């Protein structure tokens, strides 16, 4: 396999499959888990169980928090409504925003880099810059929220 033929593995593959499922849900109103099963059925002989589990967590999380994710994205998109964005861009943004705000074990820089790679692979020429600009601001907000929470937890007696 040449360097140009590298295929994603592990969490990267899980993100890619989650994006494919979210795109299908957005496009055709497909059931999210059926769309995810179809995405995994597209060429992988025996997918890594951890990658499948990660993709399921992402798809469920985006579905559960979609309204608040969309509100965060719109807040930082400089007058771009979520419904005016390309399906690929908005689903990459939803996926990464979910990871940044609900998956504290994932390093923000990794999430940003993975989102940009997805944008380069599946989006338009402008997608990676557009996505990077919004996610930088989402990541900063998520970092502020994380630093505020430890004090809140102590106040609650934890």
The percent range for strand residues is under 5%
Taking all residues together, what is the mean pLDDT? 86
Low-confidence stretches: 1-5, 153-158
Q: What is the tally of beta strands?
A: 0
Give the proportion of residues in helices.
over 70%
Spell out the CATH superfamily: NusB-like
Q: Based on helices, strands and strand pairing, what is the structural class? A: mainly alpha
Discrete helix count: 6
Give the distance, in angstroms, between the N- and C-terminal Cα atoms: 51 Å
CATH class: Mainly Alpha
Main sheet attributes: strand count, strand direction, barrel closure: none
The coarse overall form would be globular
CATH topology-level name: N-utilizing Substance Protein B Homolog, Chain A
Measured on Cα atoms, how large is the radius of gyration?
A: 16 Å
Order of helices and strands: HHHHHH
């Amino acid at each position: 396999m040449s360097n140009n033929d590298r295929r994603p593995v592990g969490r990267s593959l899980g993100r890619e499959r989650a994006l494919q499922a979210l795109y299908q849900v957005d496009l055709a109103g497909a059931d999210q888990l059926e769309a995810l099963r179809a995405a995994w059925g597209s060429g992988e002989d025996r997918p890594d169980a951890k990658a499948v589990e990660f993709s399921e967590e992402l798809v469920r999380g985006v579905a559960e928090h979609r309204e608040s994710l969309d509100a965060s994205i719109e807040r930082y998109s400089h007058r771009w409504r979520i419904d005016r964005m390309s399906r690929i861009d908005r689903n990459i943004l939803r996926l990464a925003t979910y990871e940044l705000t609900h998956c504290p074990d994932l390093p923000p820089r990794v999430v940003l880099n993975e989102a940009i790679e997805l944008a380069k692979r599946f989006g338009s020429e402008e997608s990676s810059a557009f996505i990077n600009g919004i996610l930088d601001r989402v990541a900063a907000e998520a970092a502020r929220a994380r630093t505020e929470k430890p004090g809140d937890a102590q106040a609650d007696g934890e």
